[in-house]
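Posting this for the archive.
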Amino acid sequence: MIKRPMACHSFSAALVVVVLVSCLLAPPAVSASSVNISTYWGTNYGEGSIEDACNTGLYSIVNIGFVYKFGNGQTPVLNLSGHCDPSVQGCTYLGREIRDCQQKNITVLISIGGPTGDYNLTSLDDVT
């Protein structure tokens, strides 16, 4: 076993402290605005509103899920898991919340498809 002088241990401990403090005080290598973190909203009633998701400051993309019925001439159907009922105009407040998110430079998308449903894009008319 090699005995090291006490000064060597003190120097090592001091070096570790300096490195840790430097890491804590250094600016981040990547700014938060350059990182795209997304969340999937609309499939769980307990998740809060779109506005809540956007106000966290954590997300640059909010993906609304989901339109599970579309194409082949069908009227699109949006499932928001109890947040609101689009079939009776019960989701009109979402327009304001989506615009508020967009004013915060958050991209808001609508997901189509899902684990179950009746959808098929067979023509350009289905897409537009």
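Strands lie at 38-41, 61-71, 74-78, 107-112, 118-119. The longest strand covers residues 61-71.
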